[in-house]
Specification:
2 domains, alpha/beta, globular, D-Maltodextrin-Binding Protein, domain 2, seven-stranded mixed β-sheet, 34% helix, 14 helices
């Protein structure tokens, strides 16, 4: 019954899209967000002495100094080795990271793919001179020079790690165990009010991925490259889902508590959230659904206005060094970017569990990438919805 309810919902959605048509607006002059042209920013030519400190914006769990857990600290050894004092700020969302980087007060950021192109085309970050990062050659080739961290073959950052946006559920409540993202998009879900979803415009890609796998007639080949008809279908699906959402999350600690308390029983998650919830004895499991998933490959990027560029480069080299990269990967719950890190993890099966070397697994993961008007799937005859359109639609979806 739930499956047929979803089918009826999508039949109505697609019918409405047919009536609406799929015309696009005129293409902008540039290739970046909002048609922006690529700014001319020079990369650091040579590495000099550290400036004594470095100001970092990062996701929670990326810059640990022992204050959260005395055993989890890869900051103090960096400070001792380089003389660069670490000043870090945790950002809750990619939008917050972009806003903070625009101030020019921060030297380096751990940007996800839904922020990186905005930072590049906004002139807020500089190309990276990879020859100045000694550990860069040991980064998995599958993470280098990708659509979200480079432009025209020029790298704009150093890969940190990668992971998938998984589907998590309470095993004592959600039965039978789900296998598909259809569980969170079911219009007749028995878990109404206890479904959760990531609170960001980039979540539209999750709906687009589901439609790509279940409604081939839409012609979606990349969940970040959506023309009018494709975009409208994804938005309509999310507006329908909104009626069943109990709360959207962006603070990972709040999602842990929601699943622990039973206020949320089903929804999108990160592996670190699952780890923390299980550590708190919450009966949860997370998995990669049959359709695959969206995901992230975070990139350390240097501000174009960095006041401490040498310390920024020293930090990037440190955080992807085998020992530090292994430590942060285990703490956060992600596959490391440095292939040598797999020999440094305390859990010798860690890289197997997180598919660090399994490119077939990650071939099912669509890494966050900033949507552009110039379609990322290579189409030239239509205009795709850029991130500003995604942002506007997300406000409408949430109501």
């Amino acid at each position: 019954m739930r499956r047929s309810g979803l089918a009826l919902l999508m039949a109505g959605v697609l019918g409405a899209m047919t009536l609406a048509g799929c015309g696009g607006s005129d293409k902008s002059g540039g290739g970046g967000p909002g048609g922006a042209a690529l700014p001319k920013v020079n990369k650091l030519a040579s590495l000099g002495a550290g400036e004594g400190q470095v100001n970092i914006i990062a996701w929670a769990g990326y810059v640990e100094d022992g204050s959260n857990d005395p055993k989890v600290d890869w900051v103090h050894d960096f400070e001792k080795e380089t003389g660069c004092k670490v000043n870090s700020k945790v950002a809750g969302t990619s939008d917050e990271m972009v806003s903070l980087m625009k101030t020019g007060e921060y030297d380096v950021v751990s940007a996800s793919g839904d922020a990186s192109l905005r930072l590049i085309y906004g002139g807020d970050v500089a190309p990276v001179n990879t020859s100045l990062v000694a550990n860069y050659p040991d980064v998995f080739d599958g993470l280098k020079n990708k659509q979200w961290n480079s432009v025209n073959g020029v790298p704009y950052g150093i890969p940190h790690g990668r992971g998938a946006n998984l589907l998590m559920y309470r095993t004592d409540t959600v039965k039978p165990a789900p296998t598909s993202w259809g569980a969170v998009f079911d219009a007749n879900s028995p878990y109404k009010g206890k479904i959760t979803a990531y609170d960001s415009p980039i979540y539209i890609a999750d709906a687009a991925l589901y439609l790509m796998k279940t409604h081939s007639d839409l012609g979606i080949t990349n969940p970040y490259a959506l023309d009018d008809k494709q975009f409208s279908a994804a938005v309509a699906l999310l507006k329908a889902q909104n009626k069943n959402i109990g709360e959207y999350w962006s603070d990972y600690t709040k999602e842990v508590q929601a699943f622990k308390a039973g206020n949320s029983v089903l929804g999108t998650t990160w592996q670190v959230i699952t780890n923390l919830a299980q550590a708190d004895k919450a009966p949860v499991q997370a998995f990669l659904p049959s359709e695959g998933a969206t995901g992230w490959s975070d990139t350390w990027m240097v501000s174009s206005k960095a006041k401490h560029p040498n310390c920024a480069y020293l930090w990037m080299n440190h955080i992807i060094s085998p020992k530090a990269n292994a430590a942060v990967a285990e703490w956060f719950g992600e596959a490391p970017s440095n292939k040598l890190a797999c020999d440094q993890t305390s859990d010798k099966n860690f890289c197997t569990t997180f598919h660090a070397t399994d490119e077939s697994y990650f071939s099912k993961v669509w890494y966050w990438t900033t949507p552009l008007a110039q379609c990322l799937d290579g189409r030239k005859d239509v205009t795709c919805k850029d991130y500003s359109a995604w942002t506007q639609a997300w406000t409408e979806i949430k109501g």
